[in-house]
Amino acid sequence: MDLVTGAVGSLASKLLQLLGEEYKLQTTGLRKQVESLSAELQSIRPFLDTVANVPWYLLDEQTKVWAREVRDKCYDVEDVFDTVLVQLEGPETADPSRLKRAMHKMGDLFAKVKARHDIANDIEDIMRQLVEVAERRNRYKIDDSIKVKPASKTIDPSCSALYTKPSQLVGINEPRDALIEMLSIGGQEKKIVSIVGSGGLGKTTLAMAVYDKLTKINGRFDCGAFVPVGPKPDIKKTLRDILIDLNKTSNMINALVDNRRLSLLGDLKELDEKQLIDSLRGHLEGKRYFIVLDDIWEKETWRFVELAFVDGKCGSRILTTTRNSEISKEIGEVYKLDELSDKNSKKLFYSITFGGEEKRPCSDNLDMVSDTIIHKCRGLPLAIVTIAGVLARKPIEEWSDVYNSIGFGPDENKVEDMKKILSFSYYDLDPHLRTCLLYLCIFLEEYSIDKRELILRWIAEGFIYEERGKAFFDVGDSYLRELMNRNLVIPTEEKSSGLLRGCRVHDMVHRLIRQLSTEENFAVVLDKDQRSSVAQDKVRRLALRTLTEETNYKDNLARVRSFNAIICFTKLIPPVCSFKVLRVLVLEYCIGMKGYPIKHIAKLLHLRYIALSHTPVRKLPKEIGNLKFLQTLLLDDTGIKELPASVRLLKQLMCLRADEKTRVPDWIGEMTSLVELEMYHELLPNFLLREAPRVQEQEMHSGADNKCSTRKFVKELGKLINLRVLKSGIKLQDQEEGRDFLASLSKLHKIQDISMLLTAYLEIDVGREPSFALSSSLRTLQLLNVHFSKLPAWMNGQRLPNLCQLKVLVSNTDEQDLRILGTLQKLRHLVLMDIKNHKLKLTICGCGGFQNLRFLHLGGSLQFVPGAMPRLEDITFSVMVSELVDANISFDFGLENLSSLQSVTVGVDCADACPREVEEAEAAIRHAVDIHSKHPSLLVKRMNEDKMGTVDAGSREFSRHMYKMLRDSTLSEQIKKLNDQIDVQNNCNSTLYSQAQEMAHSIPEGHPSIAKQIQWSSVTLLEMVALRKQLADTFQTINMQHIKLQERLFELYKVENKRMAAIVEELKAELKISDNVADAEEHGDAVA
């Protein structure tokens, strides 16, 4: 019944809006009517609050009927008033003609006068209906015994730890390690293991822990996928999801487009099952893959999907989860997941209620009631975290009342007890939070829901109530975090930054809210099996998912407020003109848009939210500016090349997303209400495109045909002062544009996330950089391809106290810069590419910096001392072998001092190093990892292996020794000495060659001989000729290049001379053998 109170609350705010100064109802009798209506609704509100606090199943049928009627009347009233607000606002025209603008204004004036007359009649009719409802209410009696106490608002401090989720991993290490052992990672045969256990036992959490552990080990698998399946799945969607996830993990796409995974569906959604299986088999052929299929319900599902998994003897692994033991036996080796032990159950329970078992108060009564509740949870993690999340917010004295109010059944009925626990947690929420939770039923269970999109939908639906001093989005964010704190939704974080990116709904919670949605007629959800969650005449929210047949709701859409269609053929989607009061329109991954009347969306004047992502719309109607209340417009991967000019009239637009195919308008700076902007002034490089290059070349755009010049775009950005999220691509031409770009960013005082990719490299001279600072609210800063000449002064912990993720390129980095970056206390992910001093090996001291850093990616080497980076889990760095050897610097990087290290990736640069030196560097790194107490994974990648020295170690060392001896001399002296050395080697070679030729002539004709090898290697000879030519060309230029050429020529002489010396020795041996043979023959003749 929380939906009723939500409807009344939303309507009350609309009435207050209508009574405001903006709509000028003060001088009319209409104001009194609106005030009377508002008073009538407020008189109903207290009774509805009482009903809302009673679980639905405890209400009698008469009360349910009455409450539904009130809710429907409130929705009807809100629809009327929304229509009035639309009429009073009136559409604007983007037509530049003065006459047309004047005529439009006159027509608008008449329309507003008519609207004021119409509303009086509507209110009169509504008041009559509400009086009738109130009279029926007086005839109904609600038993006081079903009233429940309001939930305590006291928040225990321990609840702040819930978001970090360590409690959900209690007791998981042992089963995780056992599963990894079962998977026998070292074997080459394909292996399949199935986790089996009841709902709420933590199968998905365990599978995810195994997946994360194994895929963190870089190089162990070529690709991987984690895909939820669920009951009665769409097989084609499951196969597509596997392909998309595999593609995501096998292609290292830049973090700028990480939230916009490759839109393979554009190519895959037209394929049938066989074609998808063939595509999967082709993708997996010859690869070592790790795939997790979560929550399989039917044998047929597994049998079909298994056809796609080839066994190339590459050591691939498949892990599944299921509740059905028969299915698990058919799939493969079975791992039975048991309930938590009493010890771990208590550990989990107390970690949520008190922040740890050791922190609980000493009380016999507390122990008794806690033990009783924990026993009823029967070792099910979901039940424990759910009930503990409720109890953590209540005084201990009320815990017994909570236990008694749940009404547990017999000991053997685990499923029913679980439902009661979840149901109690649901009704313990405030009404507005229940509404927000119910809304999640329109998403697929276990589906990863984007946080920003979800909150924007809540705002559009009117679920978010204004709080003084807080923006709507911040209020919505607090709602989501509260649901997470109650353990009713599962947070999904960006691993590297630790930032909250969205949430998932556990399948059992999803079933609960789907059931409640059915009972309260909240939403109709239709999937491919035509399974509907309600069968009511007045549909308010309609969601279509993977439909393959006609829906029977096409003629009952006049009151629909929210319409969602995902992966549907448009022929099965109702035309948009069927909707009258639509607020939310979602058409994502829909197929066959040709001929669909998308132009009619401009007539849906109530729209707040439009999402057309991954649906080929191609063009928006030019009248879209009429949608005065539009707050969100998502157009990524639609093929839309240009925004209509009327978009600039959308003064309430908060979020605008488009991809690189949509041109940036020159009026983008007028969109000052924007909170989130994703548009690309420049076409991204192919390797960063979010989709396969399906678009024809003529559809592409670049800076040349972009209506907004680079310089103008840079300045327009600075006008968007309400921006919190900015993702864009741009090509800056010079230093001046670079400084203007940074100056514009500094004007965005509310910005939290910046991800900017320059499509061409630009170095910014920090010494001439104007004085400015980015917002202290900044959490993510990615400036890719922007090269700072040195670390900017504003990039420190005092200026950026909330920065969690930093990706930046600095031309010169020193240890002082590292100390400054170490002051960024919340920094978890650092990518620092040092393009000029990548050969240096800097020292990271353990002086308190980088206390929260988890991920580090460097373009060079570091030396870690004890206490450095105490939480670092993943490190990537490069080693320039020859330069470290030349500088007499060891290959000891102090990795053993990184106490939390889990994964190490090293790029070994082989250029100018001999094979033995490269092997020594790799051996030193492997040894450091082997002796590490955490035994982190290791991936070593060789770079520039083709430029590794071809000579043996001795010759290379001699050459380097000579170079070291000469490096302090002047260049000309070095060149002279090298010339002398080359002459010596040349003379030596001539002597050896002449000696070999002379001895070769002494060998009897026809005798098998080494003499045929007395010639220069053609490859060596050609290289030497080329070197001599280059030396002649650079002779007048005394520089290091000339010396390097001489060194190489010297090395070739050394190698060739060594070969010739070996030939001479063999020739000597041959001549001795020949002499002995001749003597024997002569002796034989004499005997004869």
Brief descriptors of the model:
single chain, 1088 residues, alpha/beta, Rossmann fold, 17-stranded parallel sheet, 5-stranded parallel sheet, 29 helices, globular, disordered C terminus, LRR_dom_sf, NB-ARC domain-containing protein
Structural class: alpha/beta
Strand content: 5-15%
Major sheet description: 17 strands, parallel
Low-confidence stretches: 93-107, 142-168, 251-266, 684-705, 1083-1088
Family: Belongs to the disease resistance NB-LRR family.
Organism: Setaria viridis (Green bristlegrass)
GO molecular function: ADP binding
GO biological process, one term: innate immune response-activating signaling pathway
Characterise this structure.
This protein is of the alpha/beta class. A hairpin with a 6-residue loop joins strand 7 (490-493) and strand 8. The strands form four sheets. It has a 17-stranded parallel beta sheet, with helices on both faces. The chain has a five-stranded parallel beta sheet with strand order 2-3-4-1-5, sandwiched between helices. The protein starts with a helix and ends with a helix. The chain contains 29 helices and 27 strands. Helices cover 41% and strands 13% of the residues. The radius of gyration is 36 Å and the shape is globular. Among the domains are: 2-146; 172-336, Rossmann fold; 341-520, no CATH class; 523-662, Alpha-Beta Horseshoe (Leucine-rich repeat, LRR (right-handed beta-alpha superhelix)), CATH 3.80.10; 957-1082, no CATH class. 39% of the residues are buried. Residues 560-938 form the Disease resistance R13L4/SHOC-2-like LRR domain.
